[in-house]
Amino acid sequence: MTLRKLVISMIATSAIVFGSAVQAATYSFGTLLSGGGPSSVHLADLDINNLGSGHWSFSLYNIDLSVFGSRAFIGSMAVDGATPSSVTTVAGGGVNSVGTNPGSGPGGSFDFRYVLGGGSDRLKTAETISWDAFGLGSSLPINGDLALHVQGTSFSPNSAWYVSPVPEPETYAMMLIGLCLIGFSIRKQKVR
Questions:
Q1: Tens of pLDDT, residue by residue, the chain (192 residues)
Q2: How far apart are CA 48 and CA 61, in angstroms?
Q3: Rg for the chain (alpha carbons), in Å?
Q4: CA within 20 to 30 Å of 119's CA: 146, 149, 167, 174, which one?
Q5: What is the per-residue pLDDT for 22?
Q6: CA separation for the pair 188, 167 (Å, rounded)
Q7: C-alpha distances out from residue 97 to 40, 89, 120, Å
Q8: pLDDT number for residue 93
Q9: What SS3 string covers the chain?
Q10: CA-CA distance, 113 to 69, in Å (whole number)?
């Protein structure tokens, strides 16, 4: 009976963990995809939340672009996925407007991009921008489906695309092994 309760509690915990991941995600950008710049740097974080009926909220936190020089800014985010039917910018961020531009991004493998401002309206270090997108469906992008375009850098070429690192299969295997070890140790303690 104790083993049965343990198995049920592990299944319930897994469902809660994976179920919450379906509704929201945080992406940390810093792996160079193309262009000029360091191969690994933590430059920005993106929170995405599913608000239901194809309505998603995005909040991009520009952490630090100092490694790219004083003129660097994030100009857009390429997305490999569904194009939104409309976008609205949340007031009070570092950029006044977020728009879309279909069919552009690094290597031609992205479907569209969110354009963050324009002209002198630029997302610089320590600024945040939030926006809502509509008509996206119900699935979150996976790591590697989003890329940030850093422009005006001191590198050659003077722009670069950065992605959120894709978790390796070994990461998931390690997590599963860890859960099994925790379950085994709990079971062993209850047997004593």
A1: 566 665 666 665 554 444 444 467 889 999 999 999 999 999 999 999 999 999 999 999 999 999 999 999 999 999 988 889 999 998 878 889 999 988 778 888 888 999 999 888 999 999 999 999 999 887 777 767 899 999 999 999 999 999 987 654 444 445 566 666 666 666 666 666
A2: 12
A3: 20
A4: 146
A5: 46
A6: 32
A7: 29, 6, 12
A8: 80
A9: CHHHHHHHHHHHHHHHHHHHHHHEEEEEEEEEEEECCCCEEEEEEEEEEEEECCEEEEEEEECCCHHHCCCCEEEEEEECCCCCCEEEEECCCCCCCEEEEECCCHHHCCCEEEEECECCECECCCCEEEEEEECCCCCCCCCCCEEEEEECCCCCCCEEEEECCCCCHHHHHHHHHHHHHHHHHHHHHHHC
A10: 24
Q: Which amino acid, one-letter code, is at 188?
A: K
Residues in the chain: 192
Give the angle subtended at the CA of 130 by the CAs of 125 and 134, to the nearest 5°: 145
Both tokens assigned to 86: 């409309």
Structure tokens at 169: 């299969």
What is the value of pTM for the model shown? 0.74
